[in-house]
Amino acid sequence: MKKESLILVVEDESSIADNVLISLKSEGFRCKHVSLAQDAVDVVKSDAVSLIVLDVGLPDFTGFEACKEIRKFSRVPIIFLTARGEEIDRVVGLEIGADDYMTKPFSPRELVARVKLRLRDFEQVESTDKDSESNDEFMIDETRKTITFQGVVLELTVFEFGILKALLGQPERVFSREQLIASVRDMPEVVLARAVDNHIKTLRAKLKDIDNSDSPIKTHRGLGYSIRL
Ligand code: CA
């Protein structure tokens, strides 16, 4: 992990912000602190931010909205801080492109551990630049986290990307829902097995938009899913 990493902390409660900043700085990180969502978007545009710790409840607009805005131009890792423990919020957070989340109250030490983990993951992805796999129909671009189907880039959520990538990794293999959940980073604790069915459904719809013939993804009743060779 690079110690010169710049962490952007977006938090309007000064006591929480102070704790987070102290913990990160004590580990040698450079930090920048803002209290507004718009400021966060602006900083990501202007500075080389390595990771964002992003509060959901902000005075101007929500962290979710800020995340959506940032994802239009940056893949910088984002860890949400949320006061709401509702599963739906966590799932929404991950689906709109966050990499991790922590529910308040949280331990600053655990946050620092997650920051390090996300930075390491991100740097590994970056270092495998241009390392892409392909078969006839699909092409995975690890760096851009995109999958191309018959030459068309699919617009995928984090989960859809993870599921499709897992299936493509071993064509014809039948994956259970649980195995698909396990193959997607961070999915286990937040996603129910039946949610996989929904992700498969939306994935199929996206593939069908490109090719209206038989879906490459097969359902194996009671067992799970596979993708054709
Ligand atoms: Ca707040």
The kinds of small molecule bound in this structure are:
calcium ion
Which structural class do the helices and strands define?
A: alpha/beta
Strand order of the largest sheet: 2-1-3-4-5
* N/C terminus separation: 38 Å
- Name the beta content range: 15-25%
Tally of DSSP β-strands: 11
Task: Give a written overview of the molecule.
The structure is a single chain. With 229 residues, the protein is α/β, with parallel strands linked by helices. Helices cover 43% and strands 20% of the residues. The protein is built from 8 helices and 11 strands. The protein has helices spanning 14-26, 37-46, 63-71, 87-95, 108-127, 158-169, 177-183, 193-210; strands at 6-10, 30-34, 51-55, 78-82, 100-103, 132-134, 138-141, 146-149, 152-153, 217-220, 224-227. The strands form 3 sheets. The chain has a 5-stranded parallel sheet with strand order 2-1-3-4-5, sandwiched between helices. Strand 1 (6-10), helix 1 (14-26) and strand 2 (30-34) form a beta-alpha-beta unit. Helix 2 (37-46) packs parallel to helix 3 and helix 6 (158-169) crosses helix 8. The termini are far apart. Mean pLDDT is 84; it is low at 129-134. Calcium ion binds at residues 12-13, 55, 57-58. Calcium ion binds next to loops.
